[in-house]
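Team,

Forwarding the record for the chain on the shared tracking sheet. I've put the sequence and predicted structure together so nobody has to dig through attachments.
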Amino acid sequence: MTKFDVLTVGNAIVDIIARCDETFITDNGIIKGAMNLIDAERAELLYSRMGPALEASGGSAGNTASGVASFGGRAAYFGKVANDQLGEIFIHDIRAQGVHFETKPLAGPPPTARSMIFVTPDGERSMNTYLGACVELGPEDVEESVVADAKVTYFEGYLWDPPRAKDAIRDCARIAHANGREMSMTLSDSFCVHRYRDEFLDLMRSGTIDIVFANKAEALALYETEDFEEALTRIAQDCRMAAVTMSEEGSVILSKGARTKVDAISIPSVVDTTGAGDLYAAGFLYGYTAGRPLSDCGRLGSLAAGLVIQQVGPRPLLSLADEARKARLI
């Protein structure tokens, strides 16, 4: 028996979410639908221009850990916050959701990371992230016993921006594989893929990563093609398993030469797409570590993603375990 089903590793970020119109995005030079890395000065500027906002603990891998826990899975998380007010908010929130989180806070500057997320009327989210303390995550923050005792260790591609985090991830992969566990990653963002294409492909082709999550845009960016079928064929060749999401068209899971197509759930309207990919990964990994068929893993992912885009914020407000039981998925 393992102690944890899923360990996630990522940038510990407090999200500050506000609605805005398209003009605001244009006037402030924000790349719509992307994660834009910003410095402290721009963070202060955008914050001063925001309307009423919701503050909530976020960060891609943190959202996934919370999703796994909401399904009833045993989740753990590595991520770096500072010893400040936003850091306290993050620590409280993730522990309150049942996630094991013991990464030591940073004593001094920089402060805890924050992401100003602007949600346009179409539900699209544009993230503007000041990484702050996130960049201090390093090998010393890897709890070897937790990695060794987690069925799958999952990390976000965004983590490839802070350089010391790469060493931490490689340590996790070494420990996981030495203990017969698996490694997984999400490509995170097409702009992230453009920055690190060669490194991501090497992680996959070298076997450092066993399971890859991507959306359609990220898969196309990874192979520098506009042919989605080509991207699917190539990603299936480069890694042992891949789950590729396609928004309202559902997802496709590629493993051992086979493809499993999974439909998206029907929803009345999209409120906020923040966290959709994170929660898809949560549902998938919850099912996968429970030994469920890949089709069920995809359905659990679709359920979680479909529910989170009907609310504001990236962490589930409803019990995913309850919703999965209603849908007869568990």
